[in-house]
Task: structure prediction
Amino acid sequence: LDVNFIIAFAEECTIPDLKDCLKQLHQTIDLFVEGGMDKFLTIEIRQQMYPTVETGHVINLLKKYKELGVASRLFSSKHKNLKIIRKKVAKYAITTLTAELAESNSNSKAM
Result:
C-alpha cells in the first residue's frame, strides 16, 4: 500500500513526530483492509490494536461503505487482498458504535 511507503519515508525523514501523525491513518486502513471490524467492536481489543482510531470516524466510514453496496463487492473482487464488510456487519457495527459513543458522551457530560 502507498501508506507503507509514506510511513517508510516518515521513518527516514528528519521531521519530528511525522510517523506519529500517520498512525491513525495506518490503523484505520488496516481495520478496513484486514476486515477487523469484529475486533474493533471489542473495546479491549480496540484499545490494543487500534488505539489511535476514532470511533466517530469509523462510524462515518461505515456509513459511506454501506452506501456503496454492490460497488464495494465489485471493487473487492478486483482487489483480492481486501476483505468485504458485509452490509449486516456494517449496520450492526454502526448501531453498536453509535450507542457506545452516545453512552460515553453522556457519561463524560455527567462528570
The mean pLDDT is 82.
